[in-house]
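Loading example: each entry is read as two labelled lines plus one structure line.
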Amino acid sequence: MKYIDEFRRHDLALNLASAIAAEAASSREYRFMEFCGGHTHAIFRYGVQDLMPPNVRFVHGPGCPVCVLPVPRIDNAIELASQPGVILATYADMMRVPATKRTSLIKAKAAGADVRMVYSTQDALKIARDNPEREVVFFAIGFETTTPATAVAMLQARTEGLANFSVFSNHVLTPPALQHLLETEDGADAARVDGFIGPSHVSTVIGSAPYEPFAAEYRRPVVIAGFEPLDVMQATLMLIRQINEGRHEVENQYIRAVTREGNRKAQKLMAEVFELRDTFEWRGLGWVPHSALKLRESFAEHDAEQRFTLTPSETRDVKGCACPAILRGLKEPSDCELFGTVCTPEAPVGACMVSSEGACAAYWSYGRFRSTSTKEEAAA
Amino acid sequence: MCLALPAEVIALKDDGENATVSLEGVRKTISLALVDDVTVGDYVLVHVGFALAKLSAEEAAETLALMAEAGVPGAENLGGGVEGAEGTGGAA
């Protein structure tokens, strides 16, 4: 068991496809939102949509931390990186995200800012140890999957007395985003969703229990699924069965990695270092209450937002970019007039094209020719 | 960003806080700060240099068994499978 190839098996995919085709009632449509960009990627890379009957559709959700981070936060990161004496350490995903006036961290780096790509918070700590005369700021982004790694680094920095290490926290939370989507679903600008394919690795940390209130209150089934194509297909079958039986429960397809209670050790470390923000801005969703984390007051000396003066800026979405609507599941990348013309992975206009998990990047890599032919057929 | 790869633990470091894993043959040192009771031979999910969870071989086998059982009788005769699957919506 290597946990990868087994979950990409052709014969099992056909098996699941036949079960889905047989059990999906032809009298209705099934619209499932995959919350995570990892699922969007699997659906496109492996052609999962093509294995579905026409009445089973996937709606892409906002679960891409690079995509949902609003422009002002990226402006702030560039501002930090541009201060004399500062080294900004960041995960590589953030380098090319367009900020105000189409700047980006990679352009700031080209202009002389000391921006360094790191694989892990451990690498950022090492930079701080090796450069005691410099201020090292870690640009922390990500959902609950990534937050524990920042928490561990923060505690290490305190233990080691690394006074030159600070964190610019942009960690966001999955359950409030899901709640926000469900709360606003009656509005005119809401995507209709019959059920959710729940997060994989966020759930390894927080467990499956946090989704239970949404499933009950909003009467929508949630099935937590792994990121391999067979995981997505099996979760789809489980959602179809729930809907056919009139159930709306939280089920776990990803039992090899996710438990109901999650990773208690990681949860404890996060709680020790972080606390809830009153509100936080998401690209696409707007301001969402209690949806992000900041460092606790006891870590103020390691909090980049307290240590440095940051200029507030306003979100101005790029004209014509449909990324905000795509993140809400209202539009598909091929509905955007910039897609594939002025906006490509080489020269991204919107964040959905930058991150490999973004819906636009997934369409571009694996589905752009098909969507073009579908459009032409529709027009004919 | 939330992607995590299954990797086999091939050695534990003396400090007890780190391990060497093999990612498709590439060796990497990762932190064990977020997991308990990891031993050589275990598979862990690796994300940004940290083991997030231990993978369960029994649960993985059970998941695959459910997938194998899911097919409807006669599904193996669907020929191309894809075309057959698309044409039988609601047949059961």
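The first strand of chain A starts at residue 30 and ends at 36.
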